Amino acid sequence: MEQVLELKHIHYAYHTLDGETPALTDISFALNKGEFVSIVGPSGCGKSTLLSLISGLLEPEKGLIKINGKYLKESTTNVGYMLQHDELFEWRTIYNNVILGLEIQHMLTARTRERAHDLLDLYGLRQFESSHPSELSGGMRQRAALIRTLVLEPDLLLLDEPFSALDYQTRLTVGDDIGQIIRKEGKSALLVTHDLSEAISLADRVIILSGRPATIKQTIPLIFDLDADTPLNRRNAPEFKTYFNLIWKELNTDE
Amino acid sequence: MNNLSAEQKKYLLMHRRHKRIVSISRILILLSFLFVWEFTANVGIIDSFIFSSPSKIALCFFGMLMDKSIFLHLGVTLFETIISFLLVIAISILVAVALWFSSKLSEILDPYLVVLNSLPKSALAPLLIVWLGATKTTIIVAGMSVAIFGSILSLYTSFTVVDPGKIKLIYTLGGNRFHALSKVVLPSSIPAIISNMKVNIGLCLVGVIIGEFLAARDGLGYLIIYSSQVFRRDGILIQSTTSSYISQMLSLHPDVRPEKIPQAR
Ligand SMILES: Nc1ncnc2c1ncn2[C@@H]1O[C@H](COP(=O)(O)OP(=O)(O)OP(=O)(O)O)[C@@H](O)[C@H]1O
Ligand SMILES: [Mg+2]
User: What is the ipTM score, two decimals?
Assistant: First the structure.
């Protein structure tokens, strides 16, 4: 299997004048091409830090990260990182927020503009293209932020609790959609979430992190015996509950 | 828009009434002040030689309008103020951007900026004349000296309070520090820049008038000094009101709210 992402013995600590906050210790795992992996762990354990390291915003103190076989610094792979907060700019319209990445990477063409409009349409934001972020609900804002990431057509997607501001219903549909899109287009994704059922319904594997400083407690492959392996079908499958209990127990045991 | 509910109509009516009361009261205050001044001066409660009176001022102003001298002085002051204002804005934005780019530089220079900002600038004006001579340049520099350091400090502060999450977003989208500046820092500081401009136009005017006090043969500051030397209180008062009126006019502005700002490209 081709590896999109490979992490080896990653360590990271935050340094302030008050002292050192170790966030990650000895994290190693790999992500195969087309694989969807969820990361769960207690709040403040270092999940966002892990994604920042993979996206190159932070540099690991020890260990190495490879993307498509190349060191992170030399990698040309398009990595899409969707932050925990939507960070939409109030002085831009929704459409102009969505094309921010295209603008920065000088990729604004008739085709990419078209794609931005199509995605806005697909996620029910067409009428809000020329609205400003404050006129949108939390869920709509998060969809706009997701489109801003997707319109760059990343090969590897890093999602930091992308659905947390959505209401339950939208959360299921958007989660389902994203899952399908990522699978259909053969993309690989790393999803950080607090929501165990979301992790189980979307992913091929769940990585469970310990409390801060995070280490990998366990990796649980998810295998469902389904004809149509969709998030919704998974939620109704008998294995769902078994996995839920397994992960829940693992999260709540202290070594 | 025509089928407004009764409550909405009532609300609009109340709002209009409120606005009317505010503007009528403002005018009444001015009129009664002028009346009391004129009355006490005429009756002799205050000395009209020292305090002048509205009617004398009006006459004096009329005289200046007739011989067109007021326009010359007004024009000169306006010109000097606008030049120094434009220079202050351009320089302070450039310096604030440089400080934002290098946090080291800004930390090093911070105490100097604070000290320079708290200098009594009117005391600086005589020095400027010695250094630069009694020219228009001196007056423009005097105007700038009053505003520039405070302007740099306040712009830089508004640059630094920009949400770090928004800057992080720029990096996740593949941007660099220049993108952070042009896409986040400058657009989100536009309200701060505009309010900074409003303060600065007034400060530049003050600086220019101080400069004219000392080193000019025309301009409102020169008129004020000239009138005070020849004991024309009405003259001083006219020029002082005119100059505060200019600063009012110059800082007239449409209401600027962040969401109304067109996107910066
Ligand atoms: N800039 C920083 N400076 C110092 N410490 C930090 C910084 N950012 C994060 N930390 C610390 O590192 C730890 C991990 O932070 P991180 O944001 O990765 O957690 P998280 O797992 O994403 O949490 P959450 O689930 O709440 O989003 C936290 O305990 C936090 O206190
Ligand atoms: Mg987080």
Answer: 0.87
